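Structure ticket #2291
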Amino acid sequence: MCPAMGWQDCGQRFYCPFCGKLSEVPWQHYQPTNGVNGVRVDKEKRPELSTGSYEILNSQKGEAAALLLAIDVSVSALRGGHLEFVTQQIQMLLNSMKREDGDALDVRVGLMTYDSRIHLYDLSPELSRPHMLVITETEDLQLPVREGLLVPLKDCISSIDR
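Resolution: structure written out below.
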């Protein structure tokens, strides 16, 4: 989610300005909207609805877009079933990013999980399985620049599925 998305039909659907699609909100995550601007009543309690971020890339540079998937793996996310739901949604998203010929779009993908620490995954296709880098110092966060943290989707989709 990002702040640019709009809620419609009293919070039952949301509009994505990037892909232009109107999507249903699963009943487990439904909350009504308040006022003419269509603001959800739980906006302040759900940081993903107000502090999500996105970047519009300059397509003239010829660089592939990047998608960093950040997943909450805390105990509360596990107990509440949110982790299972999110992983299903991510699989659907990545599968929808395939072209009609079966090839994946030219997008670089990174995977990050977090609880009290941050876990970054090296998704390099040369590896038999993803390697995890754990960052325990989150006060003054400096993410490492390493090969394998952002990999073309076509090279890592099977690793992410596993």
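Closing remark: The mean pLDDT is 78.
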